Structures are given as structure tokens and as C-alpha cells.
Amino acid sequence: MYTKCGNVEVARVIFDKMVVKNSISWNTMIDGYMRNGGIDEGIDLFDRMPVRDKVSWTALICGFVKRDCFKEVLDRFRKMQIFGVEPDYVTVITVVAACVNLGALRLGIWVHRYVLQKGLNKEIHVSNSLIDMYSRCGCIEFARQEFS
Q1: For the chain, percent helix, then strand, then coil, each to nearest 5?
Q2: Apex CA 31: angle with CA 73 and CA 69, to 5°?
Q3: Could you say which of 7, 35, 57, 130 would form a disulfide bridge with 80 (CB–CB 3.0 to 4.6 Å)?
Q4: PPR repeats span which residues (predicted)?
Q5: How many CB atoms lie within 10 A of CB 123?
Q6: Residues 76 and 143 reside in one and the same domain
Q7: Is residue 61 domain-resident?
Q8: How far is residue 51's CA from residue 57's CA, in Å, rounded to a whole number?
Q9: In a domain, 59, yes or no
């Protein structure tokens, strides 16, 4: 609640006083910092988090997109894969948005192949983001193929 209202400092005091922290409390703090411009603090918490899950990685990656740190999105997505964490459709949409903003069509095509391999193409939001990416990159035929 505090982080959504921009009171990250208050949330951090409460977080630091917690005896037992679970993934929800860690992820809430990471998301709160990233939403409110505390990128360094969000990264620090993420790095100190004992167990990172799909939600943790996605909170960090989405935060980078919100702050226009698109290269960091791609770097963290790569690290997510190295650590064996399977992204969900929210993560993929975020990575596609970073590809669009960087003009990284080749990487976007790789992400599209990854989506097909993992069966994430059934998610309408993923298909829409791929259509958007191809359209913005001038690949209308690829966009049309994804649409059909």
C-alpha cells in the first residue's frame, strides 16, 4: 500500500523491521522502488534477495522499462534465462517493448522465436506486442503473419 502511494521510505522502515520476509514482501519493495525512481535501491534489494522468482525478475525488468533503461531490460532478461527462471507473458511483453524502443529488431525476432518455443504465443497480449513491434520496425508482413 505504501509503495503504491509513493511512500517507499515508510514501506522500507516496515520492511526492515520484519522478522520474516517472504517473496511477496521482497517483490513489493522491489516494485515500489522501481515505480518511484529508486532504481539503485531496487537493484540492491533484488541482489540481496535470498530466492528470486519469476515475479521478482519481472518486477525488476518492468521497472527498467518504466524508467527507459531498455538495455538493462535486455541484460536482466538474459540473466533471468541463465539462472533458469522461465519468464511469463508479462516479462515477454516488457522485453518486446524494450526491443521496440532500442530498435533491436533482431533481438525482437529472437524473442518471437522464444515465444513460439515456449507456447507463449497463445497469450493475446504477447501477440499484440509482437504485432506492434513488427509494425513499428517497418516489418508489416511479419506483423500481418502474427495477426493471422
Answers
A1: 75, 0, 25
A2: 25
A3: 57
A4: 22-56
A5: 16
A6: yes
A7: no
A8: 11
A9: no
